[in-house]
Automatic annotation (TrEMBL):
PANTHER family: SULFATE TRANSPORTER YBAR-RELATED
InterPro entries referenced in this protein's UniProt entry, alphabetically: Membrane-Transporter-like, SLC26A/SulP_dom, STAS_dom, STAS_dom_sf
Pfam families reported in the protein's UniProt record: STAS (PF01740), Sulfate_transp (PF00916)
UniProt subcellular location: Membrane
Protein name: Sodium-independent anion transporter
Membrane-spanning residues: 42-59, 87-105, 117-135, 155-172, 179-198, 230-250, 271-294, 306-324, 329-349, 361-392
Originating species: Halobacteriovorax marinus
Alphabetized UniProt keyword annotations: Membrane, Transmembrane, Transmembrane helix
GO cellular component assignments: membrane
Major localization listed first in the record, in broad terms: membrane
Length: 496
């Protein structure tokens, strides 16, 4: 059922090696996002392990990596600052329940309503966020407690090591693909730094990643309506951001691997992961586009890649933390810069002048809002703007062909959908004062879509009644007829 074992030894080897590569990149990311959220590094590391493991087993997209993310961390800041970390754990539990319900109710299917222009803006915005997050590694805290850029010598060393890592990752696959180039880049730069005794910061300078196994822990919060009132808004926002980022990352991995994931199962998997994580002292998480790209580009395709990444991460936390702490931050920054280059849709810049200006605006809008606010707001803005543009275009498409039959009655053969956006254009088609004693509205090539369309037809009937004239409707499709039937007595036009 869980497809844990890859189909061949070759793909299993690729999954395990790519999982090892991903686990190395997960450590600094989890630590960094813990600092963003204002919690202990182990809270982020436990989340990365548990969310990564459970979603890899139960989720709907093999090869996709989940863990603690910056998109969620920025929302958690005020909750932790105002109420403490225990409220965060309770929030993550409720977040998981909401996500499971979303999956059970099959809300995952609504991801198909997200336009491609929003998708492009999403990945571009995330690439920019990942890039900006790495810039802090080029700064240090001076004696006055102010973050300033590294001195020239340290800066050149940092840039050199980052460049070397990127060089290895980019060019090694041209020679051999037997070993993930990302893993080779990290190991090579780490060996070089310690062999030559280069003075550069390592993972240990950020925080110790050593710890024990996560233990079961019921959040220490009062079980009252006041607590529920505090955590519910955060849980809803986190659940929405988590699912949106996860489902859009799922679509991205689908495109790259030319396979298809299961959105509703992924919702349930994400929810189960967060539900469990909240009871084991983790900060919750969702799909990570950066690590997912590292995994896919390193050859990870099966569930074994995510499972091995989580288990390697746990091994690092419990046993081999001293080895991970030796890795230079420059090597990990180089990895993330390559992720940025691979994630950003460079083709979107080239096509901006070739696609409709509305789509170009949506791409830029979503990218900008993603950087300055959060993913959920950005995607919502993109979808709303796209929907409004679509409605506006459709509203201009309704028109009618007019003719007089042998009995001297006028017929309006309508074309285009009749809905809230097109009612104004629909009204302008008619002239009750000059029209014949009886008119026919032919809906063979049109549709009655909503209550606004029923209301505008009723208003039209009343206008013709004022001139002692009749309105008949014909050729309604079955789905339009069902809309009319539901309206009952509210619909006053006569059927022909």
């Amino acid at each position: 059922m869980f497809e844990l074992i890859s189909k061949t030894k070759e793909t299993l080897k690729n999954d395990i090696l790519s999982g090892l590569t991903v686990s190395l990149a997960l450590v600094p990311e989890a630590v960094a996002f813990s600092f963003v959220a204002g919690v202990d590094p182990l809270v982020g590391l436990y989340a990365a392990f548990l969310v990564g493991l459970i979603t890899s087993i139960c989720g709907g997209r093999p090869g996709m990596i989940s863990g603690a993310t910056g998109a969620l961390a920025v929302v958690m800041v005020s909750l932790v600052a105002n109420n403490g970390v225990e409220y965060l754990f309770a929030t993550v539990v409720l977040m998981g329940i909401i996500q499971i319900l979303a999956g059970v109710l099959k809300f995952g299917k609504f991801v198909r309503l997200i336009p491609h222009s929003v998708m492009l803006g999403f990945v571009n915005g995330l690439a920019i966020i990942i890039f900006l997050a790495q810039l802090s590694q080029f700064k240090y805290e001076n004696s006055e407690g102010i973050m300033t850029w590294l001195e020239s010598k340290d800066m050149f060393l940092m840039l050199g090591l980052v460049g070397l890592t990127m060089f290895i990752i980019h060019f090694l696959p041209k020679l051999t693909k037997a070993i993930p180039s990302t893993l080779v880049g990290i190991v090579a730069v780490t060996g070089l730094v310690h062999l030559l005794g280069l003075d550069t910061r390592t993972v240990l300078d950020m925080a110790s990643v050593g710890g024990g196994l996560p233990t079961f822990h019921i959040p220490s919060v009062p079980f009252t309506m006041e607590t529920f009132r505090i955590i519910l808004p955060y849980s809803c926002i986190l659940a929405a951001i988590g699912l949106i980022e996860s489902l859009m990352t799922l679509q991205l991995v689908d495109e790259i691997t030319e396979t298809r994931g299961r959105a509703n199962r992924e919702c349930v998997g994400q929810g189960l992961a967060n539900l469990v994580t909240g009871f084991f002292g983790g900060m919750g998480g969702c799909a990570m586009i950066g690590q997912s790209m590292i995994n896919v580009n390193s050859g990870g395709r099966g569930r074994a890649s995510g499972v091995s990444a989580a288990l390697f991460l746990l091994f690092f936390i419990v046993v081999a933390s001293s080895l991970i702490e030796l890795i230079p931050l420059a090597a990990l920054v180089g990895v993330m810069f390559m992720v940025v280059i691979g994630t950003f849709e460079w083709s979107s810049i080239r096509i901006l002048g070739k696609i409709p200006k509305e789509d170009a605006f949506v791409i830029i809008l979503v990218s900008t809002v993603t950087v300055f606010t959060d993913l959920a707001i950005a995607v919502a803005c993109g979808v709303v703007v796209s929907a409004l543009v679509f409605a506006w275009k459709k509203s201009e498409r309704i028109h009618a062909e007019e003719y007089i039959d042998e009995e001297g009655y006028k017929h309006y053969k309508l074309n285009g959908p009749l809905f809230f956006g097109s009612v104004q254009s629909f009204q302008e088609l008619f002239n009750p004062k000059e029209d014949t004693k009886r008119i026919y509205l032919d809906f063979k090539d049109s549709r009655v879509c909503d209550f606004s369309s029923i209301e505008v037809i009723n208003n039209l009937v009343e206008k013709y009644k004022a001139f002692d004239k009749e309105v008949y409707i014909k050729n309604l499709s079955p789905d339009c007829q069902s809309v009319i039937d539901k309206a009952g007595n509210m619909f006053v036009a006569k059927s022909h």
